[in-house]
User: Fold this.
Amino acid sequence: MQANSLTTEQIRALIAKGKLKDSIFKAMGIACLALALLVIVMLVSDMIAKGSERLTLDFFTNFASRHAGQAGILSAWVGSLLVMLVTALAAVPIGVAAGVYLEEYAKRNWITEIIEINITNLAAVPSIVYGLLALGIFVYQFGFGQSILSAGLTLALLILPIVIVSTREAIRAIPAMIREGSMAVGATRWQTCRYHIIPYAMPGILTGVIIGLARAIGETAPIITIGALTFIAFLPPVPYTTGADGVTAGLFDWVMSPFTVMPIQIFNWTSRPDPAFEVNAAAAGFVLMVMVLSMNGIAIWLRYKMRKNIKW
Amino acid sequence: MTANNASDLPVVSDRLSKNAMRHVSERLIESLLFAAAAVSVLTTIGIVYVLVSESIHFFQNVSIVDFLTDTQWTPLFDDAHFGIMVLVSGTVVSSLVALAVAIPMGTIIAIYLSEFANGKVREVAKPILELLGGIPTIVFGYFALLMVTPLLQKFFPELPGFSLLSAGLVMGIMIVPYIASLSEDAMRAVPMSLREGSYAMGGTRLYTALHVVVPAAFSGLAASYILAISRAVGETMILAVAAGMQPNLTWNPAEPAATITSYIVQVALGDLPHGSIGYQTIFAAGLTLILITLCFNILGQWLRRKFRENY
Assistant:
């Protein structure tokens, strides 16, 4: 037998070769991770280096302008905030309700199966397709136009799978004894959900909502597709104030207002040939990155905290 | 019947009617919750309805044979041509570049994290990957156009300012976290006993990873690759910013070209009247896009079923 005929030297050489291959692969793994980290560091440092001169208070309080030096992101960050408000108001109730239904109510039948397959597949649909959906349905069929409402609802549909999946995961982690205890003292199914399941699942739901909103705030393609304007030099009407045209705005007039958002402002500045706007794009990109990364950071921290605190 | 019982009666019926109310409100709430769950189905129906109905109008004006075989895409010119292959070529080339980066990098990171790294490294590496995955695509577009392209031009001076190559490379980096985290989950689900068997036979860590763990987790790896393809095909802003938006039938990554997605963005940026042929083209393009991703999803589900290992 050949294996028996190996000398000790040869076996040692074999082991050394195996160990060498192991450490080469280990180095490759670390190198790949380092490359990922390098990309983040390069991006952030480049944006700070280029954009820091523009990161003054004026940048946040000025409207977009033809002059790069005077242009600011006021309409963009206000727009992003308002769109996120609509998105959260639509996606959170629907997503949590859907998650609760699928975990606590749904019977194992073909209807449930279809809903579940649907949610999985929707998560893989390219975001621009949601933009086309919104263009056809919200903008023209429902007549919402190119408004904050259309954009907010579009992004709500986009993040719905994220909210549903995180709600379901959070609910699944709650042991059956909680439900049994609640029902044993006479609570109905909904009372069990309302007073036990949803409150206990809240941290997990919140994590999912924040991750979803962080994704939504950076989404550009669907909002461009519904036809958001790239140059907006006014803010949506504040409720119960009188504008220059003498019309007093109602409580919800702002939802029908034209708008722009941070990513669209960055796209607009990036695609201009004048390098002066590059500086603005860098500064606005940095602001957007801070928004997104801090939201993700909060979500990661929340999850970490949750994992430590849970004791059933 | 005694007086005592008679005075009890209203109390009982009161409780019964309360119970009935409770029952009604329970049913009402259940149907509300069901309606919320049905929103996802309605979304799918809405997507199919919008894409198909607008595309039907489009295909009444343009024959489907021209759509699939024409080699020019000039829908807004007087001499209009509608050859979707022009846009598909851009999508295919940029996706291939992205996958050439993302699949090796993502798989190596996944194997490293699941088989080599200790808990501390994982604790640092996973948030880094999550942060990378959370960066908005428009910021990646900025990165591709203003940092990666100039860097590549130092090595290849003839590279144009817009190219599928730099957009594809950055798309690849963007997709790495998806592949890494899904593949790692799949590999961690492989039972320890399989690895122990390999170690007992004298297998090294790398040998065990490549010849035992990877084959056992293959269905999960395949699923992550399919998701990566869907991401690459559907990616929009990186391409719209860094790959140029002129239609160009090419298989050369060093050229600028439009993709299906960046064409939709380009049209949406302009001011096309509702119902015009230009407006309809973006729905035909969207339908093509969704059919491509659908094919890969079906392939992914088939792969998962075929190679699923049960322990």
In short: Chain A has two domains: 8-52, 56-309.
